[in-house]
Amino acid sequence: MDLVRFLAIAKKEWIQIRRDTRSVVMAFVLPLFLLLFFGYAITWDVNDIPIAVLDEDGSRESRELVEAFVSSGYFTVVGHLESAADGDHRLVVGSAAGILTIPPGYSSALTTPGRVAEVQLLLDGSDANTATISLNYADAIVTRHGVSAALGGRPAVPVIALESRTWYNPNLESRHMIVPGLIAVIMSIIAAMLTALTIAREWERGTMEQLAATPVSRLEVVLGKLAPYLCIGLFDVAVTVVAGILIFGTPLNGSVLLLAVLTLLFLTGALGLGIFISAAVKSQVLATQIAMVATYLPAVLLSGFMFDIASMPTVLRGITYLIPARYYVTVTRGIFLKGVGAEVLWPQATMMLLYAVIGLTLATRAFKKELVA
Predict the structure, then answer these.
(1) Pick from 57, 198, 283, 336: most CB atoms within 10 A?
(2) What is the pTM of this model?
(3) Which of 20, 28, 356 is nearest to 202 (CA)?
(4) Residue 224: pLDDT above 60?
């Protein structure tokens, strides 16, 4: 390993990056764009659920129940119905996610001791997640409103009082969980796609002969080509972290230095994977496609970013251990939200170090200076 030759290869790669508009856009524009786009587009918060109301009682108590739904902030009344058939039509066309029906005699049943006042909430189950959350919201609203009405507007004194607290994300805002995970997913995709063009570019442009004639080792070529992208990756992570804090308000409770060190490990492995793909297929288009398939779907589906790994089938849970983004998602969320240190994240750090070693080894072995391969 010669430092002069290594720096010469790194300088050559940097010049090629500057001359390639596609690489510049992918390196400096795409990560921030993806963070902003998915940060606003992806959310698990369910608010302003559109419901239509069929009030067949027409009493003060029925209007107070509807107002309780609206004032909760979770439901929005989008219309008042004349018949049950109108409600079925609204659910079919999707103009309402639920139909709240208050039958005749609701007010008298609510104020008569020993009687149960019944209301009906029909929900669109085609979106199971929204329907389940809506049902929980409605159950809490109806229960609280029914107890208060039965006591003449006075709050009930519970026999058992549950005092709950939520740590690390007290307001349960999904964006605070999404943004750190997005950083991991975006960088796993961008890193592999950037370096997937490196060796393939040499073959397609006919410059591999010049590179093969130079007195550099395979390791010097791989590390020299990796170094500029490693700097770009660290810059992209810094930009997305700052954007997550300033734009989305996501707190960074942990060590910035620890995040930088673990990011360096993760990016080294991801970039090494990209160089391995580029050296193996020798085509920029094919290398980009393979890098997208090998990183995007696993990073989104099997890293714990979108779906809880503990809820997956046993086979898929085993496969997730082979997905590097799994460990980096844990790192970003742990440092951002929990402020944990190396004493907690050392298993993830160990796996990412192993991933980096494997990535560099595969890239070095796949790169051949011989032209007749």
Answers:
(1) 198
(2) 0.79
(3) 20
(4) yes
